[in-house]
Amino acid sequence: MKKLAFAACLVLLVMNWGKVSALWQPKVAAAPLTQGDVVLYATSWCGYCNLARDLLRREGVAFVEHDIETSEYGKKMHKALGGGGIPVLEIRDKVIRGYDEARIISAVRGG
User: Fold this and answer.
1) What's the CA gap between 97 and 88, in Å, rounded?
2) For residue 40, what are the CA distances in angstroms to 21, 52, 56, 85, 108?
3) d(CA 64, CA 41)
4) Are strands 64-67 and 94-97 parallel, antiparallel or unpaired?
5) Is 75 exposed, middle or buried (0-12, 13-18, 19+ CB in 10 A)?
6) Which residues, in sequence order, are CB contacts of 44 under 8 Å at separation 6+?
7) Pick from 11, 32, 39, 98: most CB atoms within 10 A?
8) Cα(94)–Cα(109) distance, rounded to whole angstroms?
9) Which of the two residues, 40 and 20, has the higher pLDDT score?
Protein backbone atom coordinates (compact mmCIF):
# COMPACT_ATOMS: atom_id res chain seq x y z
CA MET A 1 0.00 0.00 0.00
CA LYS A 2 2.87 2.38 0.82
CA LYS A 3 4.48 1.64 -2.54
CA LEU A 4 1.22 2.46 -4.33
CA ALA A 5 0.87 5.78 -2.46
CA PHE A 6 4.51 6.62 -3.21
CA ALA A 7 4.03 5.82 -6.90
CA ALA A 8 0.90 7.97 -7.06
CA CYS A 9 2.75 10.89 -5.45
CA LEU A 10 5.62 10.44 -7.87
CA VAL A 11 3.26 10.45 -10.86
CA LEU A 12 1.56 13.64 -9.61
CA LEU A 13 4.93 15.29 -9.07
CA VAL A 14 6.09 14.45 -12.58
CA MET A 15 2.80 15.59 -14.13
CA ASN A 16 2.97 18.95 -12.33
CA TRP A 17 6.74 19.51 -12.52
CA GLY A 18 6.36 22.92 -14.18
CA LYS A 19 4.27 24.21 -11.29
CA VAL A 20 6.48 22.61 -8.67
CA SER A 21 9.75 23.85 -10.17
CA ALA A 22 8.31 27.38 -10.34
CA LEU A 23 8.41 27.44 -6.55
CA TRP A 24 12.22 27.56 -6.71
CA GLN A 25 12.42 30.04 -9.57
CA PRO A 26 13.28 33.59 -8.51
CA LYS A 27 10.46 36.03 -9.15
CA VAL A 28 11.34 38.72 -11.66
CA ALA A 29 9.85 42.05 -10.68
CA ALA A 30 8.16 43.99 -13.44
CA ALA A 31 9.86 47.19 -14.45
CA PRO A 32 8.22 50.18 -12.82
CA LEU A 33 5.67 51.99 -14.93
CA THR A 34 6.71 55.29 -16.43
CA GLN A 35 4.69 58.13 -17.90
CA GLY A 36 3.13 56.85 -21.11
CA ASP A 37 3.12 53.17 -20.10
CA VAL A 38 -0.55 53.55 -19.16
CA VAL A 39 -2.97 55.23 -21.55
CA LEU A 40 -6.66 55.66 -20.79
CA TYR A 41 -9.15 56.29 -23.60
CA ALA A 42 -12.30 57.63 -21.98
CA THR A 43 -14.95 60.35 -21.83
CA SER A 44 -15.63 62.94 -19.15
CA TRP A 45 -19.14 61.65 -18.36
CA CYS A 46 -18.52 57.88 -18.17
CA GLY A 47 -18.91 56.36 -14.71
CA TYR A 48 -16.66 53.40 -15.50
CA CYS A 49 -14.02 55.79 -16.85
CA ASN A 50 -14.17 57.62 -13.50
CA LEU A 51 -13.70 54.31 -11.68
CA ALA A 52 -10.67 53.53 -13.86
CA ARG A 53 -9.17 56.99 -13.17
CA ASP A 54 -9.74 56.58 -9.43
CA LEU A 55 -8.21 53.09 -9.43
CA LEU A 56 -5.09 54.23 -11.28
CA ARG A 57 -4.67 57.18 -8.91
CA ARG A 58 -5.24 54.95 -5.86
CA GLU A 59 -2.54 52.59 -7.16
CA GLY A 60 -0.20 55.57 -7.66
CA VAL A 61 0.02 55.03 -11.41
CA ALA A 62 0.83 57.93 -13.71
CA PHE A 63 -1.28 57.75 -16.85
CA VAL A 64 -2.03 59.67 -20.00
CA GLU A 65 -5.69 60.20 -20.82
CA HIS A 66 -7.30 60.91 -24.17
CA ASP A 67 -10.95 61.91 -24.32
CA ILE A 68 -12.36 60.11 -27.33
CA GLU A 69 -15.01 62.80 -27.85
CA THR A 70 -12.77 65.89 -27.77
CA SER A 71 -9.43 64.58 -29.02
CA GLU A 72 -8.94 63.53 -32.64
CA TYR A 73 -5.92 61.48 -31.59
CA GLY A 74 -7.95 59.81 -28.82
CA LYS A 75 -10.78 59.04 -31.23
CA LYS A 76 -8.36 57.62 -33.80
CA MET A 77 -6.45 55.44 -31.32
CA HIS A 78 -9.64 54.19 -29.66
CA LYS A 79 -10.87 53.07 -33.07
CA ALA A 80 -7.48 51.51 -33.93
CA LEU A 81 -7.64 49.46 -30.72
CA GLY A 82 -11.00 48.04 -31.73
CA GLY A 83 -13.17 50.74 -30.18
CA GLY A 84 -16.41 49.34 -28.90
CA GLY A 85 -16.91 50.77 -25.47
CA ILE A 86 -15.13 52.78 -22.87
CA PRO A 87 -12.91 52.87 -21.01
CA VAL A 88 -10.11 51.29 -23.00
CA LEU A 89 -6.74 51.08 -21.27
CA GLU A 90 -3.34 50.35 -22.74
CA ILE A 91 -1.07 49.13 -19.97
CA ARG A 92 2.38 48.27 -21.27
CA ASP A 93 1.54 45.82 -24.06
CA LYS A 94 -1.95 44.87 -22.81
CA VAL A 95 -5.26 46.32 -23.93
CA ILE A 96 -8.09 46.19 -21.41
CA ARG A 97 -11.59 46.99 -22.60
CA GLY A 98 -14.10 48.11 -20.00
CA TYR A 99 -13.60 48.51 -16.28
CA ASP A 100 -12.17 45.27 -14.87
CA GLU A 101 -10.48 46.12 -11.59
CA ALA A 102 -8.68 42.80 -11.19
CA ARG A 103 -7.25 42.87 -14.75
CA ILE A 104 -6.21 46.51 -14.44
CA ILE A 105 -4.41 45.92 -11.13
CA SER A 106 -2.76 42.78 -12.48
CA ALA A 107 -1.50 44.63 -15.57
CA VAL A 108 -0.32 47.60 -13.50
CA ARG A 109 1.57 45.34 -11.12
CA GLY A 110 3.20 43.48 -13.97
CA GLY A 111 1.05 40.35 -13.98
Assistant:
1) 5
2) 37, 8, 10, 12, 13
3) 9
4) unpaired
5) middle
6) 67, 69
7) 39
8) 12
9) 40
